[in-house]
Structure formats: C-alpha cells, structure tokens
Write a structure and sequence with these properties.
heterodimer; A: seven-stranded mixed sheet; B: mainly beta; five-stranded antiparallel sheet; about 55% strand
Chain lengths: ~110, ~110
C-alpha cells in the first residue's frame, strides 16, 4: 500500500505570494493533520481534519487555511507568504484521528 | 517554558554503544508518549509508543515513561550507523489530540 503522499516535493516562492500544498492520505484513513517543521525544530501542529471537518487548529495566523475533500485528500493554503514561513510542511494521516499518525515525506517550502 | 524540552545534541557515539535520549515535559495531562525517527529530508517515522507510565521494549529499542518526574527516555542498544538520524519525542493528551513534539536530538553513530 502507498503511504502518505505529498506534492510538490519542493517549492520556491517570494514574499507576498500564495501557496497550495497537497496531501493524499493512506487508503482508508479519514483524518489528515498538517504540521510545520522549521529547520532545527520539531514539527508544530497547524490543522487537523476528520471527515472533511476541521477538528483542531494550532497557533497559526489566519493566513493559513486548509480543507479536506470527499476523497479525504487535503490542501493547505498559505497566503501573503513571509520569510518565516520557510519550512518543511508535513502531512500525517490516521484512521480516525486516533493516536497512530503516519507522516508523509513533506513539502519543503522556501520563501525568498 | 516549552511544553516539551529535548536536548538537540548533536550526539555522536561509536558503533555498538548504548544510546540514551531524553525528554522532559510540563503538561501533566499528557497520556500518550511517542518516539519518532526522522532521516534527513524525510518525514518522521513512528518508532515506539507508550501509554501512561512504564517501559516498552521492541528489539534494540526501549522506551520508558516516568509520569511522576515528567520524563521520558529512549534507549538504543548495539547502535548501528543506520541509526544515525534525528529522534523526536512527541506526546499528546488523548488519542485524537494533536501531537506536541520536542526539538529533536540529532544522533550520529560512527562505524
């Protein structure tokens, strides 16, 4: 079975631009969570979605938004990019939001 | 004070050594404790998990949780060069709450 997949792998944007990151969960998993990992830090929780509804939101500004589609894939959107948004964005899926989360390889975003 | 504290290292050991990795935390509501391994430019991979206090062993890996001290540990026996990675501790209050991670400890095992 395929694991969690994310696209694109790498992305370079300039300040003020908008970005959309995509995630496909493991087949059968209905919950998707997004994390931001800045270089040298642990992942920090951004959003959790389960059955297409937002179930949790971390301490991130409103420039960050997400959604989950009927096939349980998800998008993370970031508007008005700042240099500090440069990070590895990780998607994790789980069956029902239960404890075992499986992470994808991440999307590395660089903001210039 | 951060909710989860983890010494970032780096930690360098010879092959075959016993490695001890540790985290402390401040939120006494944490019930689930995990260790993830993350290779360079990859996503985290779940290694071990423990619910509440106690020990858990899986091959060369042993996880320990001491809730009274708010302290968790991961021991790696007979360390191998392939164990070279960043090790992240993570914890959560309940089964469906977000994971709270430590900074990660970068480990190098030298052949």
């Amino acid at each position: 079975d395929a694991g969690v997949t994310q696209s694109p792998t790498h992305l370079i944007k300039t300040r003020g631009q908008h970005v959309t990151l995509r995630c496909s969960p493991i087949s059968g998993h209905k919950s998707v969570s997004w994390y931001q990992q800045v270089l040298g830090q642990g992942p920090q929780f951004i959003f959790q979605y389960y059955e297409k509804e937002e179930r949790g939101r971390g301490n991130f500004p409103d420039r960050f938004s997400a959604r989950q589609f009927p096939n349980y894939s998800s998008e993370l959107n970031v508007n008005a990019l700042l240099l500090g948004d440069s990070a590895l964005y990780l998607c994790a899926s789980s069956f029902r939001g239960q404890w075992e989360q499986f992470f994808g390889p991440g999307t590395r975003l660089t903001v210039l | 004070q951060k909710e989860v504290e983890q010494d970032p290292g780096p930690l360098s050991v010879p092959e075959g050594a016993i490695v001890s990795l540790n985290c402390t935390y401040s939120n006494s509501a944490f019930q689930y404790f995990m260790w993830y391994r993350q290779y360079s430019r990859k996503g985290p991979e779940l290694l071990m998990y423990t619910y509440s206090s106690g020990n858990k062993e899986d091959g060369r890996f042993t996880a320990q949780v001491d809730k009274s001290s708010k302290y968790i540990s991961l021991f790696i026996r007979d360390s191998q060069p392939s164990d070279s990675a960043t090790y992240l501790c993570a914890m959560r209050v309940s089964g469906n709450t977000p994971l709270v991670f430590g900074k990660g400890t970068r480990l190098s095992v030298i052949a």
